[in-house]
């Protein structure tokens, strides 16, 4: 299978997924990956982390179906489902074919934090073998939306 490049869906600081305050992500139950703590801006655009098709889509999370039966999940904050979509604007629909860097969602990390919720964003290779993921930036590094984040071999 060919290597897939996963880019950062948002601007922020990279952290290990084990630091996410949710055991499903921290224990890699849904798969390995990294977490991005977003820059605290009032409005932030989230972009597609790769070329693919929008599979599952919620205001606070989406799964992107990729070639080779692979999928990437991006979850905007933790427990943000409780916001019922408030503060999130979707720019795509389920089934939309997207390219890496396409605008998918606009949200407010400031508003999510003000609601008392964690803003960290897991970027997870669903059901992937951890040994097939290569992290391209060090933990603690700042990335911009669209910067290389992971290679999935």
UniProtKB/TrEMBL annotation:
Gene Ontology molecular-function annotations: kinase activity
Pfam family, one: PTS_EIIA_1
InterPro entries cross-referenced by the UniProt entry: Dup_hybrid_motif, PTS_EIIA_1_perm, PTS_EIIA_component
Annotated PROSITE patterns: PTS_EIIA_TYPE_1
Gene3D superfamilies: Glucose Permease (Domain IIA) (2.70.70.10)
Compartment(s): Cytoplasm
Domain PTS EIIA type-1: residue ranges: 22-127
GO cellular-component term (any): cytoplasm
Keyword Disulfide bond: no
Keywords for this protein: Kinase, Phosphotransferase system, Sugar transport, Transferase, Transport
One record GO biological process: phosphoenolpyruvate-dependent sugar phosphotransferase system
Domain of life, per lineage: Bacteria
This protein's name: PTS glucose transporter subunit IIA
Organism of derivation: Cellulomonas chitinilytica
Gene from which the chain derives: nagE_3
């Amino acid at each position: 299978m060919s290597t897939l490049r996963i880019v950062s869906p948002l601007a922020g600081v990279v952290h290990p997924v084990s630091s996410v305050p949710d055991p499903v992500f921290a224990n890699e139950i849904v798969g390995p990956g990294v977490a991005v703590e977003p820059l605290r801006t009032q409005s932030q655009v989230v972009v597609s982390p790769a070329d693919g098709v929008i599979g599952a889509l919620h205001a606070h999370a989406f799964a992107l179906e990729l070639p080779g039966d692979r999928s990437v999940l991006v979850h905007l904050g933790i427990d943000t489902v409780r916001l019922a979509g408030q503060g999130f604007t979707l720019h795509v629909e389920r089934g939309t074919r997207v390219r890496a860097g396409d605008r998918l969602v606009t949200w407010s990390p400031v508003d999510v934090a003000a609601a008392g919720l964690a803003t960290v964003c897991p970027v997870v290779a669903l059901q992937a073998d951890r040994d097939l993921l290569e992290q391209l930036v060090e933990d603690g590094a700042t990335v911009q939306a669209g910067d290389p984040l992971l290679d999935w071999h």
